[in-house]
Give the backbone structure.
Amino acid sequence: MGGADPSALAAPPASAMIDVIIVDDEPAARRTLRECCAKEADLHVVGEYGDGRAALEAIRARPPDLLFLDIQIESVDGITLARSLEAETLPLIVFVTAYDRYALDAFEVSATDYLLKPFDDQRFRDTLARVRRRRGTESLTQRQAGLMALMTQLERNVQALAGAGPRILAESGSRMHLLDVADVELVEGDRNYVKVTIGREIFHARSTLQQAEKSLQTQPILRISRSCLVNVNHVHELSRTPRGDFIFVVDGGSTVTSSEGYRESVREYLRRLKISPE
């Protein structure tokens, strides 16, 4: 009599499987979530979307058990999408966000799960453990109430911060600082972190350059290479290399140079700043 197939023994029953939809406009972020889900035997990714409208149609057509939802997506933002879901088939939601921790109290208050980008495997597993517990104990009414509490708290946060300029959280030494994005001169990528330059001070934040660019969208931000963003409001001096690349000197004295791959886009941006005769 042959032995049982170990993989069959390890597989969860069909009723325990969790259908998952991933919604994030960053391909790398979707890939990370997909790879994390693939390591969990009870997760079944049934769809992934980079566009909010397409995602909403898919969710309504086939509601998943669990939704990983980026807050900052194009066309229909994550909060608007969450508000548009059918109450009767509301999935468990894990909001995926690049918001700094200063803005995350809304999630803590509502006990709604979230992942702060960039996250590691352990953070994903911790979040998933809470999701599994919620799935077994939380009623649909409780789920709806939690989502409404989150929306209410987010709206309060927006109103409280309406009079203040956008801020980002970054670290210098062992201290955390809230930085006004209008003061940021340079942002440079450094693996899972970014280096933020303000004057002669350097701060570090756990983020990707693309996430940092979104956080700075109220500023005239110019990407001059794959790893560097420049706030044009702080450019003090501009020159060229013999190869034709651009050298930027910002107010605090730091100097950065554009790369060949971004030469044309930088040239076009600067051309639009020229004063031309009528």
